[in-house]
Design the sequence.
């Protein structure tokens, strides 16, 4: 692992205090956010999304959050709402899987779903998590959709499930697990989002450096991601700080990072009938 000096650590954290300088050449991609959680500051957040042209995947954690994301998408055509059940909510739905099918069928992609054996301490909930994720992955395979995955503490099992279900298009959200499993997932061909923790964590910076260009996506996990790290509510503009940090880590320019992410996203959605309307919007940026 690369060790950063105190000066370098200060540099990355100082990016949050500076005005980002990302040229307006490519549409920016926030591949994992939770817009339904903005509450009273939703309108300022949507204004930033519009001003900065950030295509934002608003992932859901349960049916109510998906319904709210659908409402938000009516307010801003840069928002893509997707349905999922977060692993911490899985016990509530493990015995009601058929109720989830209409939401899955309405959703153009799936997320946030997955396993969490780290933040969820009660191992008695893990069977419910597996049951719900199995149900979603079977639907992903059948409907040929993109899936946005939470993997905390269950990285090896998630990789095994991707292989078992032969999932062709997966986004690993905010990967922070072991490097050997990260490399195995890279070999499998999963995409990875890098987000605000790149401004704080040496481990995340190691992943950000090593990740192949072709598998790189960006995210914010707004509004809670930055808030968890620093206490500051995450607004859409923080994505530009992430892009600047990635440019520094990967010895390139912010515009090149933005272009790489845009091209990766276009490849990810290529020939996807569920997302056909997105492609011209991204290309028009």
Sequence:
């Amino acid at each position: 692992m690369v060790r950063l000096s105190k000066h370098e650590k200060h540099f990355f954290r100082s990016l949050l205090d500076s005005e980002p300088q990302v040229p307006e050449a490519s549409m920016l991609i926030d591949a994992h956010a939770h817009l339904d959680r903005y509450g009273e500051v939703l309108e300022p957040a949507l204004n930033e999304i519009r001003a900065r042209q950030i295509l934002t995947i608003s992932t859901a954690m349960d049916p109510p959050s998906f319904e709210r994301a659908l409402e938000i998408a009516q307010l801003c055509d840069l928002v893509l709402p997707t349905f999922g059940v977060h692993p911490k909510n899985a016990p509530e739905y493990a015995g009601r899987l058929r109720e989830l099918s209409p939401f899955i069928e309405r959703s153009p992609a799936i997320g946030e779903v997955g396993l969490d054996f780290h933040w969820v301490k009660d191992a008695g909930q893990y069977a419910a998590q597996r049951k719900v994720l199995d149900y979603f992955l079977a639907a992903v395979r059948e409907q040929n959709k993109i899936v946005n995955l939470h993997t905390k503490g269950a990285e090896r099992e998630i990789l095994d499930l991707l292989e078992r279900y032969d999932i062709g298009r997966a986004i690993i959200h905010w990967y922070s697990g072991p490097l050997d499993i990260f490399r195995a997932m890279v070999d499998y061909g999963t995409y990875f989002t890098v987000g605000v923790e790149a401004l704080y964590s040496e481990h995340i910076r190691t992943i950000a450096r090593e990740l192949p260009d072709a598998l790189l996506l960006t995210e914010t996990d707004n509004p809670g991601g930055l808030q968890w790290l620093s206490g500051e509510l995450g607004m859409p503009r923080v994505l530009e700080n992430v892009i600047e940090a990635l440019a520094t880590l990967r010895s390139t320019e912010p515009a090149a990072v933005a272009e790489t992410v845009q091209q990766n996203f276009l490849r990810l959605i290529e020939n996807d009938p569920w997302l056909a309307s997105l492609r011209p919007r991204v290309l028009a940026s």
User: Anything to note?
Assistant: Strands lie at 28-33, 54-59, 79-82, 110-114, 147-150, 170-172, 191-194, 216-218. The chain has a mean pLDDT of 94.
